[in-house]
Design a protein that fits this description.
306 residues; alpha/beta; Rossmann fold; eight-stranded mixed β-sheet; two-stranded antiparallel ribbon; 11 helices; 45% helix; binds 1,4-dihydronicotinamide adenine dinucleotide; oxidoreductase; Peroxisomal_Beta-Oxidation
Amino acid sequence: MSIRFDGQVAIVTGAGNGLGRSHAIALAARGAKVVVNDLGGARDGAGSSSAAAKSVVEEIKAAGGEAIAHGANVANYSDVEDMVQQALNAWGRVDILINNAGILRDKSFTKMSIDDFKLVMDVHLMGSVNCTKAVWDLMKEQQYGRIVMTTSSSGLYGNFGQTNYGAAKMAVVGLMNTLGLEGAKYNVRINALAPTAATRMTEDIMPEEILAMLVPEAVTAGALILCHEGAPSRHILCAGGGGYASSKIFETEGVYLEPAQQTPEAVAAHWDEICNTDKQSPLDNGAKQSEKFLLKAQAFLAQDKA
Ligand code: NAI
């Protein structure tokens, strides 16, 4: 099966460098018309420039593709609205949104300022919210949309010095979980990508021989499956260096403690059973968890009355 995007319009945020650039070039090479968004600042978000986005657009055009550049700051909703309007003016629709723009402001929590925490949340979380909000109604109306959130192993599993980044990256998973439910009947599918790639974000944290194996294009291969017509929804794909895996949130079967046992002492006494992963399972939505507990409570009450 050949993965094509002919006739589709994609917005890729933060596409002036690294992973976003790779996603944009691959989408264009496979037939999509692409908005190459980039604010063009430094790795920590300082400054701005249109050069990076324009150079990716030139690269796409030189290869025979179609693209336009847009310098929206994804953290600014009116910039984002303008970007979506430019896409509509040029091509009349938006089928794909890859929320990829990101910055780093790493510090241990002790040393981190509230401003650095907020800025990282603004770009990663609110940037993804803003761009998604700006295309949401039109994707629903056209009964077609594919949205990718860029999460991170730092959010899924934690990483020293990245409380701001980790919180933002897990927040986009929460955004995906609920948007996936709300978009399902309109054929709008949302997925998350947890990449590992050699970019300016990682260039100083890994040795050169490792970086050489972590080409962005290997991550893009997975990203394209998350925004293709046949995409799944509400999946987290981890991709890097040619490895591809699915990250899942499971819940253990747990225990039911009858009313007389609902004490901290009894919870402590059952801790191993609560954490036993033998019968763990994923839950489709939040209500399923309450349902699981309530069914056990009801069964106990029925047995008690009998
Ligand atoms: P990068 O620094 O090469 O690219 C990020 C791009 O986003 C830059 O071109 C930057 O100008 C742009 N950008 C930053 N703030 C923006 C804003 N407010 N509005 C518009 N554009 C903005 O970094 P990389 O590695 O390509 O990162 C892409 C995404 O992947 C990020 O969300 C990052 O957090 C995520 N990621 C990357 C990993 C890696 O191994 N490289 C690991 C896990 C997640």
